[in-house]
Amino acid sequence: MNARWMWGALALALSGAVAGCGNRAADAEQTDAADFVRVINVEVTEVQARPFVDEIQLTASVRANQDVQVAAEESGKIREILADKGSRVRQGEPIAKIDDAILSAQVEQARAQAELASQTWDRRKRLYEEDRVGSEIAYLEAKFGAEQTAANLKGLEERLARTTIRAPFDGVLDERMVEVGSSVAPGQVVARVVDLDPVKVTAGVPERYAADVRKGAEARVTFDVFPDDLYRARIGYVGATVSAQNRTFPIEVIVPNPKGLIKPQMVANVSVARRDLASALVVPQDALVRVENGYVVFVAGDRGQGPIAEVRPVTLGPSQRNEVVIESGVQEGDRLIVVGQKSVADGDHINVVGTR
In sequence order, which ranges of 127-169 are alpha helices (DSSP H)? Predict the structure, then answer.
C-alpha cells in the first residue's frame, strides 16, 4: 500500500513539472509574436503639379480625299488602254479610248452641212438686208438652218470627245474594269481613281463632348502600323446631327499623305484637345486602388514609429495615357506609393526601397 502511494506521488510530481515547462514555452511564443512587426517593401514617387492636356480619345478610319468610279459616256468597244492600273494620272489625262470611227464620220458629215448652211445664210442675209432680194421666210429659214447645223456639229464633236475616257482629277488609277476589246455602254464603270494626298480621317465623337469639339481645332492622329509617326492636323468638318444608332456625331480631319503610306480603311487613333490644365496633380493610374465606394491611394507617412502607409480617398479628374489627375485627396509633395500599394493597409509599416 505504501509502495503504490509513493509511485502515485512521483507520477503527480512529474506531470506538474511537465505542465510548468509547457506554460513557460507558450508564454515565450506569445512574447515573440507580440514583438513581430510586418514591414512591406514599397516604391514611391513624389506628387508634383504640372501642365496636363485633357484629350478626347477616338478610334477613326481613313478615307480617300476623293474616290470616284469613272464611267463611259459613249457606247462602243475599247480600242486602246492609255493608263496602267496603279499609275498616277493627272486631271484630264486619258485612261482609255473607245472606238470612234462611226462618230468621226458623223462629225465630218455634220461639219460639211454646217459649212453649207453657214454660207447659205451669209448670202441670204446680204441679199435680203442690202438688196431686198428674197422673202422674209427664206431669210429666216437660212438663219435658223445655219444655227441648227452648227448646234448639231457641236453636239457630235462633244460626243466624239467623250470617246476618250479621262481622269476626273489628279490621283491613282486604283482599278480598271475593262480591257482592249471590251464593249461598254453609257454609265458603265470602267475605272476607279482615288486621290490619297491628303486623306480624310473620320471618327464619331460621343454627344457628351458636343460643346468641346469645334471646326479648326487641332487634333493628333497616330496609326498603330506607324508607331513612330505623329500627325498634327486641323478638324475640317464637324457633323451637325447626332446618330440615333450610336449617339455620336462625325468629325473629319485632313491629314497630309505625300508618300501615300496611309491607306483608305486603315484604323487611326485621334486625340482632340478638350481643355488645357496649367497646373494639375497627375499620378500613374496604376497607383489607384479600387474600393467599394471609389478609389484610394496610399502615401508614405510617419506617425513617430517609422515609415507607415496612409490611405487617402481621392477624387479623380481627367485621365490620359495611363495617367490621371487627382482633384482632391493628395497634396503636392506627398510620397505616393506606386509599387506595393495593393499589398499594404492603412497603418502598415513600410520600407521605401526605391523612388521614381
Answer: 136-161
Residues 290 and 349 in one domain: yes
Q: Which residues of 194-207 are buried (b: 16+ CB within 10 A; e: fewer)?
A: bbbbbbbbbbbbee
**What are the φ and ψ backbone dihedral angles of 201, each rounded to 5 degrees?**
-105, 115
60 & 206 share domain: yes
Q: Where do the DSSP E strands lie in the chain? A: 39-46, 49-71, 76-81, 88-89, 94-98, 164-166, 171-176, 183-184, 189-206, 218-223, 226-238, 248-255, 267-284, 289-291, 294-302, 307-320, 323-328, 335-339, 349-355
pLDDT given for residue 262 in this prediction: 92
Span 128-185, pLDDT tens digits: 777 777 788 888 888 899 999 999 999 999 999 999 999 999 999 999 999 999 999 9
* 243, 285: one domain: no
Q: Look at residues 230, 252, 274 and tell me which one is the last residue of a structural domain.
A: 274
> How many Å apart are CA 186 and CA 184, to the nearest integer?
7
138 and 180 housed in the same domain: no
Bridge partners of 31? none
Q: Judge whether 210 lies within some domain.
A: yes
Looking at every residue in the chain, the average pLDDT score rounds to: 86
Position with higher pLDDT, 191 vs 127: 191
What confidence tier does 337 reach under pLDDT thresholds 50, 70, 90? very high
245 shares a domain with 216: yes
**Does residue 34 surpass a pLDDT of 80?**
no
Host domain of residue 231? 56-64+195-274
Q: How far is CA 280 from CA 51, 298, 334, in A?
A: 6, 19, 14
Amino acid at 204: G
pLDDT at 352 over 50: yes
303 HSE (CA, 13 A, CB side): 9
Number of domains, the chain: 4
Q: What is the DSSP string of 241-300?
A: S--TTTSEEEEEEEE--TT--S-TT-EEEEEEEEEEEEEEEEEEGGG-EEETTEEEEEEE
- Statement to judge: residues 182 and 80 lie in one domain: yes
Place of cell 450610336: 246
